[in-house]
Amino acid sequence: MKRDFTLILIGPMSAGKSTVAELLAEKLQVPQYAVDDHRWDYYKEIGYDEAEASRIARSEQGMIGLLNYWKPFEAHAVERILATQSNCVIDFGAGHSFQEDPALFERVRAAFQPHPYVVLLLPSPDLDESVTVLNARFEALLQREDGSVDPELLKLNERFTRHPSNYRLATLIVYTKGKTPEETSDEIIERLKLAEG
Protein backbone atom coordinates (compact mmCIF):
# COMPACT_ATOMS: atom_id res chain seq x y z
CA MET A 1 0.00 0.00 0.00
CA LYS A 2 1.34 3.41 -0.92
CA ARG A 3 1.83 5.68 2.08
CA ASP A 4 1.00 8.91 0.22
CA PHE A 5 -2.76 8.58 -0.05
CA THR A 6 -6.07 9.53 1.52
CA LEU A 7 -8.48 6.72 2.39
CA ILE A 8 -12.08 7.87 2.87
CA LEU A 9 -14.87 5.94 4.60
CA ILE A 10 -18.51 6.83 3.97
CA GLY A 11 -21.84 5.21 4.74
CA PRO A 12 -25.01 5.40 6.82
CA MET A 13 -25.15 5.80 10.59
CA SER A 14 -23.97 2.74 12.54
CA ALA A 15 -22.16 1.28 9.51
CA GLY A 16 -18.92 1.00 11.52
CA LYS A 17 -17.00 3.80 9.84
CA SER A 18 -15.25 5.17 12.94
CA THR A 19 -14.30 1.75 14.29
CA VAL A 20 -12.93 0.53 10.96
CA ALA A 21 -11.16 3.85 10.33
CA GLU A 22 -9.33 3.56 13.64
CA LEU A 23 -8.13 0.06 12.74
CA LEU A 24 -7.10 1.11 9.23
CA ALA A 25 -5.13 4.09 10.54
CA GLU A 26 -3.30 1.83 12.98
CA LYS A 27 -2.52 -0.82 10.35
CA LEU A 28 -1.44 1.72 7.74
CA GLN A 29 0.44 3.84 10.28
CA VAL A 30 -1.25 7.07 9.27
CA PRO A 31 -3.48 9.46 11.27
CA GLN A 32 -7.24 9.04 11.55
CA TYR A 33 -9.34 12.14 10.87
CA ALA A 34 -12.84 11.73 12.33
CA VAL A 35 -14.94 14.42 10.65
CA ASP A 36 -17.59 14.45 13.38
CA ASP A 37 -14.89 15.65 15.81
CA HIS A 38 -14.10 18.70 13.66
CA ARG A 39 -17.17 19.56 11.58
CA TRP A 40 -18.49 22.44 13.69
CA ASP A 41 -15.32 24.44 13.07
CA TYR A 42 -15.87 24.18 9.31
CA TYR A 43 -19.59 24.95 9.61
CA LYS A 44 -18.85 28.15 11.54
CA GLU A 45 -16.54 29.35 8.75
CA ILE A 46 -19.62 30.08 6.64
CA GLY A 47 -21.99 31.32 9.33
CA TYR A 48 -23.43 28.27 11.07
CA ASP A 49 -25.87 29.55 13.70
CA GLU A 50 -26.30 27.26 16.72
CA ALA A 51 -29.33 29.20 17.95
CA GLU A 52 -31.04 28.80 14.56
CA ALA A 53 -30.20 25.09 14.47
CA SER A 54 -31.66 24.66 17.95
CA ARG A 55 -34.80 26.59 16.97
CA ILE A 56 -35.31 24.36 13.92
CA ALA A 57 -34.77 21.17 15.92
CA ARG A 58 -37.38 22.23 18.50
CA SER A 59 -39.90 23.31 15.86
CA GLU A 60 -42.33 21.08 14.02
CA GLN A 61 -39.61 20.63 11.38
CA GLY A 62 -37.65 18.57 13.92
CA MET A 63 -34.70 16.43 12.89
CA ILE A 64 -35.57 16.56 9.18
CA GLY A 65 -35.54 20.35 9.25
CA LEU A 66 -32.22 20.33 11.08
CA LEU A 67 -30.77 17.92 8.52
CA ASN A 68 -31.84 20.27 5.73
CA TYR A 69 -30.27 23.23 7.53
CA TRP A 70 -26.99 21.32 7.84
CA LYS A 71 -26.70 20.44 4.14
CA PRO A 72 -24.78 23.51 2.82
CA PHE A 73 -22.50 23.43 5.85
CA GLU A 74 -21.79 19.75 5.28
CA ALA A 75 -20.89 20.38 1.63
CA HIS A 76 -18.51 23.15 2.71
CA ALA A 77 -16.91 20.88 5.33
CA VAL A 78 -16.35 18.14 2.73
CA GLU A 79 -14.65 20.61 0.39
CA ARG A 80 -12.43 22.04 3.12
CA ILE A 81 -11.48 18.69 4.65
CA LEU A 82 -10.59 17.07 1.35
CA ALA A 83 -8.59 20.12 0.31
CA THR A 84 -6.55 20.22 3.52
CA GLN A 85 -6.24 16.65 4.87
CA SER A 86 -4.02 14.06 3.19
CA ASN A 87 -2.10 10.89 3.92
CA CYS A 88 -4.69 9.82 6.48
CA VAL A 89 -7.88 7.82 6.98
CA ILE A 90 -10.95 10.07 6.98
CA ASP A 91 -14.28 8.84 8.33
CA PHE A 92 -17.14 11.11 7.34
CA GLY A 93 -20.40 11.42 9.24
CA ALA A 94 -23.35 9.84 7.48
CA GLY A 95 -24.81 13.16 6.35
CA HIS A 96 -21.68 14.48 4.67
CA SER A 97 -21.89 12.16 1.68
CA PHE A 98 -25.71 12.34 1.50
CA GLN A 99 -26.90 15.23 -0.67
CA GLU A 100 -30.33 15.32 -2.31
CA ASP A 101 -29.88 18.80 -3.79
CA PRO A 102 -28.14 18.37 -7.19
CA ALA A 103 -25.98 21.49 -6.82
CA LEU A 104 -24.76 20.49 -3.36
CA PHE A 105 -24.14 16.93 -4.50
CA GLU A 106 -22.06 18.21 -7.43
CA ARG A 107 -19.89 20.20 -5.01
CA VAL A 108 -19.34 17.10 -2.87
CA ARG A 109 -18.70 14.91 -5.92
CA ALA A 110 -16.11 17.38 -7.22
CA ALA A 111 -14.33 17.36 -3.85
CA PHE A 112 -14.25 13.54 -3.79
CA GLN A 113 -13.27 13.17 -7.45
CA PRO A 114 -9.45 13.40 -7.02
CA HIS A 115 -9.49 10.65 -4.36
CA PRO A 116 -9.40 7.07 -5.67
CA TYR A 117 -9.92 5.37 -2.28
CA VAL A 118 -13.51 6.05 -1.24
CA VAL A 119 -14.95 3.06 0.63
CA LEU A 120 -18.67 2.69 1.29
CA LEU A 121 -19.41 0.44 4.26
CA LEU A 122 -22.73 -1.44 4.29
CA PRO A 123 -23.83 -4.62 6.03
CA SER A 124 -25.15 -6.32 2.88
CA PRO A 125 -25.74 -5.86 -0.87
CA ASP A 126 -29.44 -6.36 -0.04
CA LEU A 127 -30.61 -2.85 0.90
CA ASP A 128 -33.59 -4.12 2.91
CA GLU A 129 -31.24 -6.27 4.98
CA SER A 130 -28.79 -3.37 5.37
CA VAL A 131 -31.57 -1.10 6.67
CA THR A 132 -32.69 -3.77 9.15
CA VAL A 133 -29.16 -4.38 10.46
CA LEU A 134 -28.22 -0.70 10.67
CA ASN A 135 -31.42 0.34 12.39
CA ALA A 136 -31.10 -2.46 14.94
CA ARG A 137 -27.63 -1.12 15.81
CA PHE A 138 -28.90 2.44 15.74
CA GLU A 139 -31.84 1.65 18.03
CA ALA A 140 -29.46 0.27 20.64
CA LEU A 141 -27.61 3.62 20.67
CA LEU A 142 -30.63 5.91 20.63
CA GLN A 143 -33.04 4.39 23.14
CA ARG A 144 -34.83 6.90 25.31
CA GLU A 145 -35.31 6.32 29.01
CA ASP A 146 -38.65 4.63 28.29
CA GLY A 147 -36.96 2.26 25.81
CA SER A 148 -38.46 3.89 22.70
CA VAL A 149 -36.58 5.34 19.74
CA ASP A 150 -37.51 8.37 17.63
CA PRO A 151 -38.90 6.76 14.44
CA GLU A 152 -37.85 9.83 12.41
CA LEU A 153 -34.19 9.01 13.08
CA LEU A 154 -34.68 5.46 11.84
CA LYS A 155 -36.39 6.76 8.69
CA LEU A 156 -33.52 9.16 8.22
CA ASN A 157 -30.95 6.38 8.36
CA GLU A 158 -32.99 4.43 5.82
CA ARG A 159 -32.79 7.47 3.51
CA PHE A 160 -29.02 7.54 4.00
CA THR A 161 -28.86 3.85 3.08
CA ARG A 162 -31.09 3.89 0.01
CA HIS A 163 -30.17 7.24 -1.55
CA PRO A 164 -27.76 7.04 -4.54
CA SER A 165 -25.28 9.66 -3.22
CA ASN A 166 -22.97 7.20 -1.47
CA TYR A 167 -23.01 4.76 -4.37
CA ARG A 168 -22.04 7.51 -6.82
CA LEU A 169 -19.16 8.66 -4.61
CA ALA A 170 -17.72 5.27 -3.65
CA THR A 171 -14.94 3.61 -5.59
CA LEU A 172 -15.21 0.46 -3.47
CA ILE A 173 -18.14 -1.06 -1.54
CA VAL A 174 -17.34 -3.38 1.36
CA TYR A 175 -20.07 -5.49 2.99
CA THR A 176 -19.55 -6.11 6.70
CA LYS A 177 -22.23 -8.62 7.72
CA GLY A 178 -20.66 -11.60 9.48
CA LYS A 179 -17.25 -9.90 9.70
CA THR A 180 -15.47 -8.34 12.62
CA PRO A 181 -14.16 -4.78 12.23
CA GLU A 182 -10.68 -6.31 12.11
CA GLU A 183 -11.68 -8.57 9.20
CA THR A 184 -13.33 -5.64 7.43
CA SER A 185 -10.22 -3.47 7.75
CA ASP A 186 -8.05 -6.32 6.46
CA GLU A 187 -10.37 -6.79 3.48
CA ILE A 188 -10.18 -3.09 2.61
CA ILE A 189 -6.40 -3.13 2.70
CA GLU A 190 -6.22 -6.29 0.61
CA ARG A 191 -8.68 -5.04 -1.99
CA LEU A 192 -6.90 -1.72 -2.29
CA LYS A 193 -3.61 -3.55 -2.84
CA LEU A 194 -5.29 -5.49 -5.64
CA ALA A 195 -6.61 -2.24 -7.10
CA GLU A 196 -3.07 -0.85 -7.17
CA GLY A 197 -1.60 -3.95 -8.76
How would you characterize the overall build of this protein?
The termini are close together. The longest helix is centred in the middle third of the chain and has 23 residues, at 62-84. This protein has 197 residues and is of the alpha/beta class. The protein has a five-stranded parallel beta sheet with strand order 2-3-1-4-5. The protein has helices at 17-28, 39-45, 50-58, 62-84, 102-112, 127-142, 151-162, 165-169, 181-196, and strands at residues 6-10, 32-34, 88-91, 117-122, 172-175. The chain is globular and about 50 Å long. It has one domain: 3-Layer(aba) Sandwich (Rossmann fold), CATH 3.40.50. It is 56% helix and 11% strand. The chain is built from nine helices and five strands; from the N terminus they run βαβαααβαβαααβα.
- What is the helix content? 55-70%
Q: Radius of gyration, Cα only, in angstroms?
A: 17 Å
Q: What is the level-2 CATH architecture name?
A: 3-Layer(aba) Sandwich
- Please state the structural category: alpha/beta
How would a crystallographer describe the biggest sheet? 5 strands, parallel
CATH structural class: Alpha Beta
Going across the biggest sheet, name each strand in turn.
Answer: 2-3-1-4-5
- Please give the number of β-strands: 5
Low-pLDDT segments: none
Outline: globular
The number of distinct structural domains comes to 1
Number of helices: 9
Order of helices and strands: EHEHHHEHEHHHEH
CATH topology: the name is: Rossmann fold
Assembly annotation: single chain
Mean pLDDT: 90
CATH 4th-level superfamily: P-loop containing nucleotide triphosphate hydrolases
Task: Report the end-to-end length measured between terminal Cα atoms.
Answer: 10 Å
β-sheet strand percentage: 5-15%
